[in-house]
Design goal:
Elements lengths: L1 E4 L30 E3 L18 E7 L1 E6 L2 E6 L2 E5 L5 E5 L5 E3 L1
Antiparallel strand pairs: 1-6, 2-8, 3-6, 3-8, 4-5, 4-7
Length: about 100
């Protein structure tokens, strides 16, 4: 997993802010996504012992605080952070217990 601050990302008029972070995805192509309003303390997919994907996944925390659990180790995130999860990495995103997380 890689964690990045959006405010420290290079400016690019030709592509999106994730250009170069995921080498196997062309810079102009992000094909799925949405906005997640995650209740305080919620851990989606917590019933799954392993939560993995066949491709990379990007979390961008727009509001609140969260922890990305990767192979049972926690990486704190705050608003403005992004996390790039590699394919087949076991992960869960837990929102802060006091604040709703807003994630894209």
């Amino acid at each position: 997993m890689e964690v990045h601050r959006l405010s420290e990302s290079p400016q690019s008029a030709a592509s999106h802010v994730f250009e170069g972070l995921i080498p196997v995805v062309p810079a102009a192509f992000i094909y799925r996504g949405g906005i997640i309003l995650q209740a305080p303390g919620r851990v989606p997919h917590s019933h799954e012992a392993r939560h993995i994907h066949e491709g990379e996944e990007i979390f961008v925390l727009l509001q609140g605080k969260a922890v990305v659990h990767l192979n049972r180790r926690g990486q704190p995130l705050r608003a403005g952070d992004s996390a790039v999860i590699a394919r087949d990495e076991n992960h869960h995103l837990e929102s802060d217990k006091y604040h709703q997380g807003v994630v894209i």
